[in-house]
Design a protein that fits this description.
With 229 residues, the protein is of the alpha/beta class. It contains eight helices and twelve strands. It is elongated and about 55 Å long.
Length: 229
Amino acid sequence: MTQVLVVDDEPHIRSVLRGYLESDGHVVSEAVDGETALDLLRRDRFDLVLLDVMMPGVDGLEVLRRLRATSDVYVILVTARTEEVDKLVGLGVGADDYITKPFSPREVAARVKAVLRRDRGHRTGDPDTLRFERLVIDVAGREVTADDRPVALSSLEFDLLTALAAAPGRVFSRRQLLERVWGYDFYGDERVVDVHVRSLRARLGDDAADPHLIATVRGVGYKFVGRQR
């Protein structure tokens, strides 16, 4: 059974989410604030964390920053306003998904199920390493080197880059990337792909106006244009 940690300062929300998640077969723990969550995460193993952003004291973003220093556990951030999603993704804090309030508990349960279906590792038959003139992607080790320097990517950024780089020259629509990388029929705005691509380009030193790695195909989506070694 999967272990899920629900972090929220509102008792009613924690109670409702616990009920839906437990009905799906998950073992659920609760934390009322960021410090409690960090303490539980240090002591116990969890498969996924459902993390509210706006909490008193240590907020959700700080919890995630500290967590990502030592753990690759799946994290779904819960935010109060839709417009905050772009900001959160742009910060590159490494969340696997975002949910905005008010939300349906059924939707949250579906998101949790979908994120847990994602595979952080590579599939059998996938190459262990993708090599390009200015980029090397160690798929098995989940490490990236650009222009001979290591690049720290979030889990989503790594998965997005690998999805594009595994099929150089192929044009992917935003919807196709959502299905491949997020792993399900995404509920939210497809623009979340654009924000992740902007963050990914910034980390790789790629220029949207003169791309050597990821090119925009207007009206469609994106394609990988790096030259293979």
